[in-house]
Amino acid sequence: MQTLTQRLANPTRFMELSRQLLPWISGLAAVVLAYGLYLSFFASPPDYQQGETVKIMYIHVPAAWLSMMAYLIIAVSSFGLLVFRHPLADVSAKAAAPIGAAFTLLALITGSLWGKPMWGAYWVWDARLTSVLILFFLYIGLIALRSALDEDPALAGKLTAVLGLVGVVILPVIRFSVDWWNTLHQPASVLKLGGPAIHPSILIPLLVMAAGFTLLFVAMHLKAMRNEILRRRVRSLTMAEVERAARLELRAAE
Amino acid sequence: MDLGPHAAFIWASYAVVALVIALLIVWLIADGKQQERRLEELEARGVRRRSARASGSGGHAA
After folding, report:
1. Which of A25, A74, A214, A227 is surrounded by the fewest CB atoms within 10 Å?
2. What DSSP string describes A130-152?
3. Quick one: how far is CA A77 from the chain centroid?
4. CB A54, CB A202: distance < 8 Å
C-alpha cells in the first residue's frame, strides 16, 4: 500500500491531481479572502488602543505566518531531497522560495506601515523585525544560489537544500524573539498557552484572513510546482533534441 | 468609511499587499503559459517524452 507521498512522487500523477485541485483551491481562496475583507472593513470594531490601524493586522499577521510556513515547507522539502531523494522535493523547495520571499516582504512592509503610527518609526532594529529581515535575506540567498548554479540543476538543488536546512534555525528565533529579548513588537497573542488574548470580534476576521491567505499560498505553490515540472520537461526534451542532432551530425561525418 | 487619522497607512498596506499578490499571480500564469508553449513547440518538432511515446504517439523521447 503506497502512502500519499509515494503516490505523489510521480510527477505525471501530481500534474493530473494538481490540475483538478487548483481551480477549487483558487476559487475557495477568493471566496474566503472576500469574506475576510468584508469582516475586516465592515464587521470588526476599532481596537481600544490602536484604533482603526488594527485593520493592518488582518494582512500583516497572515503574511508573517506564511513567511514562516513557506520556509518550513522549503526545509521539509530539502530534507526530503537530501534524505529520501523524493522526486518532487526539489520542485517544491524551488517553487516555495519566491512566494515565501514575497510574503516576507509583505510582512516587513505592512509591519513598517503599522509601526509608524503606533511606534513613531517605520523601522527599529528590534529582535523580531531584524530576524524577519534575516529570513528575507535567506530567501534571496536561496534564489540567488540556485540561479548561480543554473547550468547544473542537480547540484543547485542539493546546495540550496543544505542552505535551506541550515537556515531553518531562524524560525524558532523569529517565533521566540519577543520572549527572549526586550522588543517593541508585541508578544504572541493568538498561538499562545492559555488561548488567544484577542477579543473574538477581532480574532475571527484575523483567522478568516489567515485561512484565505493560506489557501492562496497553497494555490500559488501548486501552480509554481506545475510550472517547474513543465520547465524541467522542456529542459530534458531540449537536451535530448540537441544530443540527437549531434549524433546525426556525427553519423553524417562518418 | 472613516478609517481615522491613520487611514493613509491602512490603505497603503492593503494596496501593497494587493499589488504584490497580483504580480505573483500574473507571473505564475505567464510562466506556466510560456512553459506550455515551449513544450508544444518541442512536441510539434517530434520531440516527445517516453511516456508520450509509449502511448503510441511516435517521435523520439527525452
Report:
1. A214
2. HHHHHHHHHHHHHHHHHHHTTT-
3. 12
4. yes
| The dihedral sign for the CA sequence A166, A3, A15, A68 | negative
Q: Which residues of A touch B46 (CB under 8 A)?
A: none
Is the confidence metric ipTM above 0.90 for this complex?
no
Please give the DSSP secondary-structure letter assigned to residue A51: B
Backbone angles phi and psi of A189, in degrees to 5: -130, -5
Instruction: Write down the pTM of the prediction.
Output: 0.89
* Number of CB atoms found within 10 A of residue A46's CB: 15
Q: List, for residues B4-24, the tens digit of each pLDDT value.
A: 888 999 999 999 999 999 999
A254 HSE (CA, 13 A, CB side): 6
Angle at A69 between CA A65 and CA A74, to 5 degrees: 150
Question: Least CA distance to B16: which residue of chain A?
Answer: A106
Q: Hey, how many other C-beta atoms are within 10 angstroms of the C-beta on A127?
A: 20
Q: Is A227's CB within 8 Å of B16's CB?
A: no
Rounded CA-CA distance A31/B36 in Å is 28
Which residues contact residue A110 at a Cβ distance below 8 angstroms, ignoring those fewer than 6 apart?
Answer: A56, A59, A60, A63, B13, B16, B17
